[in-house]
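Consider a concrete sample entry:
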Amino acid sequence: MRLGIYGGSFDPVHYGHLLLAESCRESCRLDRVAFIPAAVSPHKRDVPPSESKHRVEMLRLAIAGNDAFEISTIELDRGGVSYTVETVAAMAELHPGAELFLLMGADSLVDFPTWREPDRICALATPVVVRRAGAADPDWDALRPLVGEQRLLEIQHAAVEMPLIGHSSKELRARLAAGQSIRYRTPRAVEQYIKTHGLYQNA
């Protein structure tokens, strides 16, 4: 099985997340994509996320009807800071024999060498670096000290370009706090869930 691992806060999930996952599924011929909401993101410790139950339910609503998408609460169940290397290692144990692919935005590639055990991540899973259409090519030099030349070529070959879509969770939270519309930025079911539960009013 070819399994995509897609971690993030998903606070809230929006069409940019879904389009990235679908672009990777198609381009890398993934059988499944697991959305993994973080308990605490290492790079967002100063911004407490919304309650996990809300983020999981919004994800469930967003991916409903897509049999290739699933949710894993492995990081929420583990608790604490969610380090990617621990998640990838755990997914490798849960899915023995599966070929793992770590989905990540090209902007994350710059900081990737500062992640916990980035070389082990590359050994356990193939990073799928996603750039938006029209954006500059990823800076592959960040990976050169971590992997051999052959492995680097494999990672470069797995890179994905997705259509330009400028939404971000931070933008949606700001719009909601200001009483502005988020229609067509996230699935309607997610929008209705946010409204029903009064989320992000004080974001």
